């Protein structure tokens, strides 16, 4: 039963099973917010399983390469699950409850407000993502997600367990202050989460990833491959998730260049098959630099300045 519960948990099918067992599985349930969420949530893990099986059985990769591509993401997923059993912090409800009384606007449910809500959400995501790359202590949390040298759907699992907490606090706080009502915010988050998962799809499953004319309007898997690349021409580009409006506004938009394939990973030397190095390596490097700093000011700067920043004496 424990194994069965873990399988249900991974594939996110427990809400559907519970509704069926309780006799609540109906058209009314499926068209409710809870029902829609229950239907959408299993899509990503199902696509992940299909991707892994397809790559394996199409024999596009040797077994050893397949193993190295998926090993660390699966280990990190398992580790985070164990950690989160002991670390429970509902940052979403905390932020929404705290900031809702201070909302600047009274947004209602007209369609144009939904579009505004998505633009605001995308802005909050841009701020979260940009700061995760430009503040070193936040990069230590975010770098785990950039460590894999292959692009596939398991990369979404490859993150430090606190990354989601920081993302939720910043994004939900901004959207709540603007006045986006809770049901609308949840609906936006579901759409954003689904697309944010799909843009990590493997190049073996979707080689081009540019999606034709859609690539002029939204961020595609090709754009997100640029974001994950460590090529100097691609670093720190494409922070948005679905709409590319804020990347264009702030000058961080970049299309994949023909003949310059993305090289995935982080810039420093790293053991990509070491859970410790992938998960804690950036923290170790930061602590080492802090230890070698010459003053309190330099230590503070090392924490808040961008990755790669050095004190003046070491530049």
Quick take:
The protein has 15 helices and no strands.
Mean pLDDT: 87
Report the portion of residues in β strands.
Answer: under 5%
The biggest sheet, with number of strands, parallel, antiparallel or mixed sense and barrel status, is: none
As residue ranges, the low-confidence spans are none
Instruction: State the helical fraction.
Output: 55-70%
How many separate structural domains?
1
- How would you spell out the order of helices and strands? HHHHHHHHHHHHHHH
Terminal CA distance: 57 Å
As a whole number of angstroms, the C-alpha radius of gyration is 21 Å
Shape: globular
Sheet/helix structural class: mainly alpha
Number of helices: 15
Tell me how many strands there are.
0
Please tell me about this protein's structure.
Helix 14 packs antiparallel against helix 15. With 315 residues, the chain is mainly alpha-helical. It is built from 15 helices and no strands. It has one domain.
Helices and strands, with pairings:
Blueprint: H1 2-11, H2 14-21, H3 27-30, H4 33-40, H5 43-57, H6 63-86, H7 91-99, H8 111-134, H9 136-146, H10 163-178, H11 182-198, H12 221-228, H13 245-250, H14 275-292, H15 296-304
Helix pairs in contact: 7-10, 8-9, 8-10, 8-11, 9-14, 14-15
